[in-house]
Amino acid sequence: MENFDVIVIGSGIGGLTAAALLSRYGKRVIVCESHTVAGGAAHNFRRQGFEFDSGPSFYCGLSDARSLNPVKQVLDILGESLQTVPYDPLGHYHFPEGSFAVYCNYQRYREEVAKITPQGARELAEFEKRLLPLYEAMKGIPTLALRSDWQLIPILLGRYLPSLLKMLPNLPLVQSSVGSVMDATVKDPWVRRLIDLECFLLSGLKASGTIAPEVAFMLGERSNTAIEYPLGGGSAIVDALVKGLKKHGGELRLGCHVEQIIVENGQAIGVRLSPQPPLKKELSPQPPLKKGGKEEVIKAPVVISNATIWDTYSKLLLPQDLPASYRQAALDTPAVESFMHLHLGFRGEGLENLTGHHVVVHDAQQDISVPGNTCMISIPTVWDNSLAPENHHVVHAYTLEPFAGWEKNQDYEEKKQQKAQTLYRAIEKVIPDIRKRVALELIGTPLTHAGYLRRYQGTYGPAIAAGKGMFPSTNTPIKGLYRVGDSTMPGIGVPAVAASGILCANSLVKSSQVMELVDLLG
Fold first, then answer.
1. Phi, psi of 296 (to 5 degrees)
2. Any idea what DSSP says for residue 321?
3. pTM of the full predicted structure?
4. By CB atoms within 10 Å of each CB, which of 31, 91, 465, 508 scores lowest?
């Protein structure tokens, strides 16, 4: 039996951020990851010479010194950096009536909108004018200084009072929905759909359900820092965090499945491991646990779960470990749908002007949130040709898809092919002859997403609409048990989950230790 100061369950961005930062603070940390590779939804996988991002592919502020991105702040403190490729436009939106280039610069972005709707462009400028002061106020308080307990108050008052005063006029926006800002500034239907789409891409919810700070951060970061792709894909970020973790004495154990968080007298005291066979095939659901194998216990006074709120409370804990009403309320948290994924390796001849990010809306009469109607496309080999064999590319396309109704039966393969057609049609907007070019096809379903990433119903994360609740904090009713990831504050997305790791780690050490690291950032 081994003893540590902190056990982290899961090696997603949130878990690795918390683990690496706590190691930097001098804690003895172990990360237990069920899979044979680190990264959770941010890991890469390779098949037949093609390397794919399994999840995120859009990043900003990973190398720019002006960036507010929590990932950048943590990597700086760990002494790690990334090689990135900047690009602009950041993507293209393809609507039934035509395509639209999305530029980072506010002015150029509005000029593109003005080509379609001059009045809408003026309204968009007013919309941005309402939100950007919130971003400017946030700039003065680095995420690295934040924590999720009462000790945040003296830090804010003592070190960041001028920035806090800047924030006061914007407080009504902090818990407001983007929809309320849009309703007050934008009447043009085309621009309203555009704002709904950008919110949907960020949070999985339209403007009415997305909190204003999330869009304020997005607008500010993409105009003030570089939009860039990390060479090596999402795994480059994962590798940098793992390197920082190990550099400061932390341990990552792969193929290490946590079966249960051990709770005694209301206190988390460690975890119980169970033998877990490694995945034999990419994009396959995780095999069931082998029963009867030798169990191992790892003890620590602090356990941090990077699993979702549903998986943590229903699979890793016994029902009696939590107050019944709290547990039920947590498990009743609404969830964003799962996904259909299409990963393709394809021949690239004659595609010299290919661009990397695209969003396709098939039917203007359907809501953008209808599964299959809005498709996201990423072609990262535009920036990093090492991800595919010579003269080839990779593409990852995905769209929302409900978990309900999916099961491994005789119709499974046929259903996969049928559901993938909306993704093929989306890619054809960019590469009309894509079907003739395909060298490798991998189709993932909600069952893939749920089994492979061990996520409840393969969900994208909680569907907590603005004004109807807040993302839970990192704390739990169990002493010594904390949570990080996309079902904790501040929410969904790579910067948000990294921030959750920072909030958790900082809450476990003295404020003086936190501020020492903040001072190193300059």
1. -125, 145
2. G
3. 0.92
4. 465
